[in-house]
Structure formats: structure tokens, C-alpha cells
Amino acid sequence: MMHHWRMTEMEKLHIIEQLRAEELCTKKARFYLTQTRDPAIQGLLQQCIDKGQRHISTLNNLLQDAGLPQMARH
């Protein structure tokens, strides 16, 4: 049986706000990745994308652990 912890509305809003910011940052990095041919810049952008995906996953897990549905991804 999974035990849910209580999350305040303010905490929920902060997590959702951060989730949206991470999604936007990752989306922008993906766009820029398609615009450059420089391997060094491509590598940095891919690191940003990977880190953003980890953050998105962690934030979604926090919401899920609190008994809230995962946010839809754009």
C-alpha cells in the first residue's frame, strides 16, 4: 500500500511552476540543438536536455508521491 504525504496548495503550485520552467528550458534546448552544427555546443545542449528530463521526472514523481496526477507533457 502506498502512503501519500500531504502537500499544501502552495507547494503544489511551486512544483508545477518549476515543472513548466524545466519543460520550457528543455524544449528550447531541443530547438537550439537542431539549429547548430557545432559538436561542442550540441554536447552542452544535450547535457541540458538530459538534466531537464531528470528534473521533470523528479518533479512528476513528487506530485505522484503526494497523490496528484502527473502533469501532461507538451
Give the C-alpha Rg: 15 Å
| Low-pLDDT sequence parts | none
Mean pLDDT reading: 89
Helical element count?
A: 2
* Estimated share of beta-strand residues: under 5%
Largest beta-sheet characterization: none
User: Helix and strand string, N-terminal first?
Assistant: HH
Number of domains: 1
Organism: Desulfofundulus australicus DSM 11792
Protein name: Coat F domain-containing protein
Describe this structure in words.
The protein has 74 residues and is mainly α. The chain has two helices and no strands. The chain is elongated and about 45 Å long. It has one domain (9-66). The chain has helices at 9-35, 39-65. It comes from Desulfofundulus australicus DSM 11792. This is Coat F domain-containing protein.
What keywords describe this structure?
2 helices, 0% strand, 74 residues, mainly alpha
In summary, what is this structure?
This protein has helices at residues 9-35, 39-65.
Secondary-structure blueprint of this entry?
Blueprint: H1 9-35, H2 39-65
Helix pairs in contact: 1-2
